[in-house]
Amino acid sequence: MRNGVGIMKNFTQIVGHDEVIAYLQKGIEEEKVSHAYILAGEKGAGKHLLARIFAATLQCEKESINPCGACRSCLQVDGGNQPDIIYVTHEKAHLGVEEIRQQINADVAIKPYSSKYKIYIIPDGETMTEAAQNALLKTIEEPPAYAVFILLTENSNIFLPTILSRCVTLQLKPVAPASIKRYLMEQCQVPDYLAEVSARFSQGNVGKAKRYATSEEFMQMKQETVHVLKHLDDMKNYEVVQFIKSVAEHKKDVNDYLDLMLLWFRDVLMFKVTQDPNGLLFADEISAIRKHAERKEYEGIEAIVNAIEKAKIRLRANVNFDTTMELMVLTMKEN
Ligand SMILES: [Zn+2]
Prior knowledge:
Bound molecules: zinc ion
CATH superfamily of the largest domain: P-loop containing nucleotide triphosphate hydrolases
CATH class of the largest domain: Alpha Beta
Radius of gyration: 23 Å
Shape: globular
Number of helices: 15
Strand content: 5-15%
């Protein structure tokens, strides 16, 4: 789906991100398109889709604020073979200086093949090394008139100040759950209840909501997580770690479980503060939430939330899985 062959075709079909879309369209309309953009947002937030539709709009022969979907360029975008929209790829974990030199710097002086612009999309901006950023900087400081760079990143803080100052940074915000729910029901034929739960648990992330709503495992995953959290105090550390391990081995993404655990303890904290079950994500587990809220101190809940967040960061940084989980479970049980 990265290059988005044959899916959504224009801005009006995107759920949320109204401000970002309005900004991009205004730039096109007023012919004030920047040379470099950063689209920042977590995985699943919609960066790839926005970049693809923006690029398609810029290249569309009808020159409007939405791609026409019918001209040669639009059809090429649909087929994933628009020659003047270039996705920068990398084999290793990091996007290094060689990739930037070969795929951008050595290529940018060649005029567009058949379109108005030559657009470079860098999908994993957060993996760029400093050397790669410096190599890119040389090009975006003095780009040819037709060049547009779109850097996608989960985190714009990794960029050098010199890169940031040359780019327009657009931060994607969480999308309202009601909009996500409507999208899931209308566009993906997800039944009402599942759409509701998926939208709320996605925390405003459309990609995540869609994944939750369309995978049969989400409801089961939620149940399993609740089961463990309810019995946390009766379980031995190794039993909890064992559970998470079995999850990681059999299921797709351990991050989903960690997210659910995070949301659970946020509920616990929220309930401890407000004593109000309304608005809790796990409202149907109120007695267990109440029990945790009564037993745990504020500092303890905070420590747990931090431990889960830290575990997510460690996993992303490829720290040993068992060690990471053991540390997290230890904090969860100690507090
Ligand atoms: Zn077109």
